[in-house]
Amino acid sequence: MEQFDKKVIRKFDTKVQYLKYKVLREVARHAWNDTLLENVMNIPQAIVPGKESTMRCCVYKERAILGERVKVAMGQDVSGHNIIQVIDIACDECPAAGYSVTDSCRGCLAHRCEDVCPRGAISFDHNHVAHIDKSKCIECGKCAEVCPYSAIVNRKRPCQIACKVKAIDINTDGAAAINDEKCTSCGACVYRCPFGAIADKSYILDVIDLIKGSENNKNYKVYAVVAPSISGQFSYAKLGQVIKGLKELGFHTVVEAALGADLVAMSEAKELTEKGFLTSSCCPAFVSYINSEFPDLAEHISHNLSPMVEISKYIKKTDPTAKAVFIGPCTAKKAEAQLEKAKPYVDAVLTFEELQALFDSRKIEITSLDEDVLDNASYYGRIFARSGGLSDAVVQALKEQGLEDFPLKAVACNGIEECRIALLKKRKGVLDANFIEGMACLGGCIGGAGSLTHGPKNKAGVDKYGKEAFEKSISDAISVLK
Amino acid sequence: MKITVCIGSSCHIKGSRQVVSQLQELISQNNLGDKVDLGGTFCMGQCQKSVCVTVDGTFHSVSPETVTEFFNENVLSKV
Q1: What CATH number should be reported for the domain whose range is A98-155?
Q2: Which residues share a beta bridge with A132?
Q3: Is A62 exposed, middle or buried (0-12, 13-18, 19+ CB in 10 A)?
Q4: At B6, which CATH number?
Q5: Would you give per-residue pLDDT tens digits along chain A (482 residues)?
Q6: Which residue of B has its CA nearest to A372?
Q7: Which residues in chain A have Cβ-Cβ distances shorter than 8 Å to B45?
Q8: pTM above 0.80?
Q9: Which parts of B1-79 are beta strand (E)?
Q10: Which residue of B has its CA nearest to A314?
């Protein structure tokens, strides 16, 4: 087991992901064997056996937290009804005091901190040591920038730093609390919390039930719809082996969500020429952000379904009893799948992290499998996975539909902060663009919280995967769908 | 008559798009548009053969080179 664990841990960025994976793997293993009910209480002890603590103050706290992780892995709520759940007892209640002066302050003469502070919030005690008046401080950080001793630090919680939409508050007990009205379910906090205290609810049990209920795809067929960002994932194996692995797990076949993206590119380009201004609708966190923070601009959201929903809808048109499981890097897709417009088409959503756990729960070592093929979409559908790809696809779709006279001016917003700036400009009437491509995660989908790894190679990986597509034009890729 | 062409990955690489477009053309040339329903599906589980096609549920393996022959034998003569 120890040897196995060492091999597996390299597949993740952090040990928090690895811990989450171990819980998912155990839950899945018991679910396949129909032994989950009688073993659910034993999983924490199976993961942390013995008397020595490995992560926390004592082994009992570790197991108590693992018990909560098991619930989240089983799709249960431990706080509120959001996809993104806070495990209260796992939250370390990190200091959240904002800018503070540390004991590195030497009480110098220059007092650059005082000079630069726009609110006069800095004063000095009898030892000439600086102090910040919290009632005046606006957290601009200028004092920290100018201190020659780096004596001023920003004590902000990693979850709050990660959450650019400011959806994380602190509850009366000091633990993180998510404001569901503002939360876009992007999962940035999940990936960034160093204690793993925030987690995305998992639907692996639903997927296992779907696969088992199909009885080898006899009763109905279960389709895996995979996001193009898969190209940079499972880097220890070949993509063809991942596809084979999905079939070994019990999926009837694997279809590229990128083919849905090809459909979206075509209709979004057309919609843009008709309306004159549009914001993209494929990133569910971006759409949710507009609806909650910029409701006045919601009328401009493209009416297209997302690539995930579009292709699942098509699958169900060709095979009405089909079940569609989306597998991607995204926690917000889990929320999107529950919306009325997606519900009839998407039966469950998994992340790449969860897929790794599913493979290992069945001891499917994908590196030892033959390579299968995955080829449905065009280059353009595939590059949706990275920032700027959707805009490139819309340019191409205008051209392929003879609409190149439309004066497209796209702004590709990389991350929710750039989205916010573009939306603010649009609201004020100063945005020099007629199409906003909004991607909530940095880098686009490849930066998604449900990815196994987040690396600089991922973007190049998506472009390479795009170029390998059998079909070079969007029209050719979607011509089989008519 | 219902013709279903596999548009899954394996068949796609073997030319299912060409098979679909040739069939569309043959159907319209022979004015069979209202008699033949042409559709797609993802994977028929026979990936080792040429492009998978079913005619009212009967399985055929077709390649872009044999579409016309397939059409004459299995569609035109039976519709």
Answers
A1: 3.30.70.20
A2: A122
A3: buried
A4: 3.40.30.10
A5: 455 566 666 788 899 999 999 999 999 999 999 999 999 999 999 999 999 998 999 999 999 999 999 999 999 999 989 999 999 999 999 988 889 999 999 999 999 999 999 999 999 999 999 999 999 999 899 999 999 999 999 988 999 999 999 999 999 888 999 999 999 999 999 999 999 999 999 999 999 999 999 999 999 999 999 999 999 899 899 999 999 999 999 999 999 999 999 999 999 999 999 999 999 999 999 999 999 999 999 999 999 999 999 999 999 999 999 999 999 999 999 999 999 999 999 999 999 999 999 999 999 999 999 999 999 999 999 999 999 999 999 999 999 999 999 999 999 999 999 999 999 999 999 999 999 999 999 999 999 999 998 887 788 889 999 999 999 999 999 988 87
A6: B10
A7: 252
A8: yes
A9: 2-6, 37-41, 51-55, 58-62
A10: B41
**What is the rounded distance in angstroms from the CA atom of residue A453 to the CA atom of residue A446?**
9
For residue A479, what is the nearest residue in chain B, using CA coordinates?
Answer: B17
Residue of B43, B46, B51 to mutate when probing chain A, most A C-beta within 10 A: B43
Q: CB-side exposure of A247: number of CA atoms within 13 Å? A: 18
| A376 contacts in chain B (CB < 8 Å) | 7-9, 12, 42
The two tokens of residue B23 are 């069939």
> Using the beta-carbon criterion (under 8 Å), do B40 and A318 form an inter-chain contact?
yes
Cβ atoms of residues A317 and A311 within 8 Å: no
Please indicate whether, in this complex, the C-beta atoms of A375 and B39 are within 8 angstroms of each other: no
Verify whether the Cβ–Cβ distance A255 to B42 is below 8 Å. Answer: yes
Total domains present in chain B: 1
Q: In degrees, to the nearest 5, what angle opens at C-alpha A42 toward C-alphas A36 and A44?
A: 110
CA distance A282 to A376: 19
CB contact (8 A) between residue B42 and residue A480: no
Both structure tokens of A81? 């009804």
Q: Give the chain B residue whose CA is nearest to the CA of A374.
A: B9
| Residues A253, A12: Cα–Cα separation, whole Å | 26
Round to whole Å and give the CA distance between A66 and A90.
9
CA distance B22 to chain A (A): 11
- At residue A394's C-alpha, the angle toward residues A391 and A398, to 5°, is 145
For A253, which of B17, B40, B42 is closest by C-beta distance? B42
Domain that holds residue B16: 2-76
Residue A106 and residue A103: Cα distance in Å, rounded? 8
So where are chain A's domains? 2-91+159-200, 98-155, 205-479
Interacting residues of A235 by C-beta distance below 8 A, sequence separation 6+? A453, A457, A461
Residue A385 CA to residue A54 CA, distance in Å, equals: 37
Structure tokens at A223: 């389709």
> What ipTM describes this predicted complex?
0.92
